[in-house]
Amino acid sequence: MVIILSCIVLCLAVLYAMKGDAITVSGSTGQIPIYSVENSDANVSITFDCAWGAKDIPIILNILKEKDVKATFFVVGEWARRNPEETKMIVEQGHDLANHSENHFKMSVLGKEKIRSEIIDCGKVIEKITGEKTDLFRAPYGDYNDTVLTVARQEGYYTIQWSVDSLDWKPGITEDGILSRIKNVKSGDILLFHNDTAHTAKILGKAIDILTEKGLKPVPVSELILRENFDIRYDGRQIKK
User: What are the residue ranges of helices labelled H in the chain?
Assistant: First the structure.
C-alpha cells in the first residue's frame, strides 16, 4: 500500500511539473522543489531565466522600475561572466540574483560531483561580480532528480521551479499567446519568463498590469518562499506546517 501511494504521489507531481509543456522530472524522485507558495498576502513572483543574450536586460529593468516591481533573475554563471555589467545592474536595482548553474547543462544526467560543481561555480561567479550570495537555485530546463535536489540542499539552496510558464521562449508564440497564459495566475504562483526572446520585454508591462488588476503583488522569490517550518505538497506547493 505504501508503494502504491508513493507511486500515485509521484505521478501527480510529474503531471503537475508538465504544466506549460515543461517536463521537469528525470528518473525517480522522492523530493519536490518549490513550484508555488501558500500565502495570504496575494503575493506572486516574476522570474527570468538568463542564459543567452543580455541586450534586453536594461529594457526589462526599466519596465520593472516603472512598475515598482522587484523580480528574480536566475542567471547562468557563464552568462554572468560574459555580462558583468548587466549582472551588477540587476542587484543594484534591488532584484534577486539567483543560481541557474554554471553552464546550463541538463542536470539529471550529470554525476553528483559535477552537479555540485555546476552549482558552486555559478554561486562563486555571482558573488565575485556582485559581492552578493544567493540561496535560490533553478535547474536548467527545470530538469531535476533526487540527486540534484539533494546536492542543492546540501549546498544551502532552495530549489525553485514555477507554476506558470509564459512559454515566451517558444518559436511561433505571439504576444497575446504569452499574455493569455498568465491570465489565470493566482496567489502564490511563480511565473517563468526568459530574457533574450522576441516578445518578453514588449509584453512585460502588460503582464504586470494583469497581475495588479487581479489584486496580486509581485515580490522577489526570496520574499515569497517560506524558509522554515514548511512542507512541500505533492504538487510542489510550499505550505506552512
Answer: 2-17, 57-66, 77-82, 84-92, 112-130, 146-154, 175-181, 200-213, 221-224
Instruction: Report in angstroms the alpha-carbon separations of 62 from 89, 90, 211.
Output: 11, 11, 18
Active site residue 199: no
β-pairing, 237-240 with 230-232? antiparallel
As a three-state string, the secondary structure of 33-46 is CECEECCCCCEEEE
Q: Are 42 and 212 in contact (CB under 8 A)?
A: no
- The domain total for the chain is 1
209 counts as catalytic: no
**Cell digits for 153?**
540542499
Can you tell me the distance from the alpha carbon of 205 to that of 122, in angstroms, rounded to the nearest whole number? Answer: 30
Say which of 165, 194, 196, 199 is annotated catalytic.
Answer: 194
CB 78 within 8 A of CB 50: no
What confidence tens digit (pLDDT) does each residue in 180-219 have? 999 999 999 999 999 999 999 999 999 999 999 999 999 9
Given 49, 56, 96, 196, which residue is catalytic? 49
- Per-residue pLDDT reduced to its tens digit, 123-159: 999 999 999 999 999 999 999 999 999 999 999 999 9
Which residue segment(s) compose the domain that 140 sits in?
A: 2-240
> If pLDDT is split at 50, 70 and 90, which confidence band does 87 have?
very high
Say which CATH number the domain at 125 has.
3.20.20.370
Rounded distance between C-alpha atoms, residue 32 and residue 231, angstroms:
10
* The residue type at 60: I
Q: Which three cell numbers stand for residue 21?
A: 509543456
